[in-house]
Design a protein that fits this description.
Elements: H1 6-25, H2 28-32, E1 35-43, E2 47-50, H3 52-60, E3 68-80, E4 84-97, E5 100-116, E6 119-129
Length: 131
């Protein structure tokens, strides 16, 4: 097993948390800022999109209308060097309705991140859901 330094793990965790909280808060520009300029997503229900303009367009359509939380857990950085890293995280997506909070989706993110002057940024983020 390759040893991955704590600073890399912390930087990647920071990027994942920044993305997640911005997504739940509906802060589109902050979401887009977690991606490389040529970064991409491939997520069921929203499809595949690449580049800041395309990402901004799709995430602007996803601004929450009711309170929501993406609980991202069990993040494992599987490979990393000075430029690129790969991580896998489990996700539970909750929505608050009149009856309270309810699980909507359970799945997994698979990420490739690049180290930039601004820190770790998503080069590619993919999701798959298991329910």
């Amino acid at each position: 097993m390759t040893t991955i330094d704590a600073a890399t793990v912390q930087g990647i965790s920071q990027t994942i948390a920044t993305y997640t909280q911005a997504l739940d808060d509906g802060r589109t520009d902050d979401i887009v800022a977690t991606f490389c300029a040529d970064g991409s997503v491939d997520i069921p229900f929203i499809g595949a999109h690449q580049g800041h303009a395309a990402l901004r367009e799709i995430y602007a359509k996803l601004v929450p209308q009711v309170p929501q939380r993406h609980l991202v857990v069990n993040t494992l950085v599987t490979d990393a060097d000075d430029h690129e890293a790969r991580a896998v995280s489990d996700i539970v997506f909750l929505l608050r309705r009149e009856a309270g909070w309810a699980v909507q989706l359970v799945g997994r993110y698979t990420d490739t991140l690049h180290q930039t002057k601004a820190g770790w940024r998503f080069h590619h983020r993919a999701a798959e859901f298991v329910n």
